[in-house]
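Input.
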Amino acid sequence: MFGRKIKLFNLLGFQVSIDLSWLIIAVLVAWSLAAGFFPYLYHGLSAETYWVMGVIGALGLFLSVIFHEFCHSLVARHLGLPMKGITLFIFGGVAEMGDEPPSAKVEFLMAIAGPISSIFIGAIFYLIYVGGMSGGWPLPVNGVIRYLAYINLLLAAFNLLPAFPLDGGRVLRSILWGTWNDLRRATRVSATIGSTFGIFLIVLGIFQFIGGNFIGGMWWFLIGLFLRGAAQTSYQQLLVRNALEGEPVRRFMNPNPVTVPRAITVAQLVEDYIYKYHFKMFPVMDNGGLVGCITTQQVKEVPRENWSRETIGELVSQSSPENTISPETDAIKALALMNQTGNSRFLVVEGTQLVGVLTLKDLMNFFSLKVELEK
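Output.
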């Protein structure tokens, strides 16, 4: 789901990170508030004041989303579901689960915690706003507090819509899951609703845009586009998990990988192996023992004029958890490691012995066949 993440801080054992995509949204939120929302509600303020209100409003939204996802994470951890952390990304945030909820009840309680938290914090901001109005606080201050009350209640209402993967969609999935005792069917139905709702928002955004509401139309269109894609991706991820879970790496690996000797030059590697077999990573051997691996990325870093002089042994990456895996590792864990490290090929080792090579293509080929045969 994520691209490059930046760690911000730790909160009660949860790592809070921000995806670079959220920075784009933060700028758009601040601009929307400063150029549209606040000038529409409060006339006669300076441009600088509107921008200060917009930036503070965007920061308040940032903290509100963290609070929302933090409540998801606390409930999940209390129910025994491992949580990796919280990441803010385009159009919101996500509490990163280490696994799917083990039961419909766990998913229901974890999903409903988010909207309840947003209603709670929205009510708090509204009470502060009422107090500020009575106390004669400055208009810009009360304006931002009013916005934060409004946006948290809107966040709760929007998330309660039964459109997966919104919280309301997860609540719906948990109810269907508990009723049918079939997670795959429940996910397919709730994801279809989520995808349909995404299309509705896209169409709404287009009509808003045509009607002259550029900012509102842009937001509805983008949110609809994201929601439709997220719903489809969530169902596909479940299919992958169902197909691969419990399958050991030994079933997918190539037990007879092409290996290269440590003593050959980079030029020999390119001509005799890379151009011949079209792989991006090769195990490196020395006297029958595994040394590590060599990748095309490492080759690219060597100046072309040095290819005939430099040997593979000078470039080889030593065997490590970043590039090796056990043949008994669950395929889902292997897929997660590929996602975390960015490596699509792993050395499969038993002790210190090379027993095969695992590739993302191997996993996906098996997944494709299993879904086709068992759909």
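The mean pLDDT is 88.
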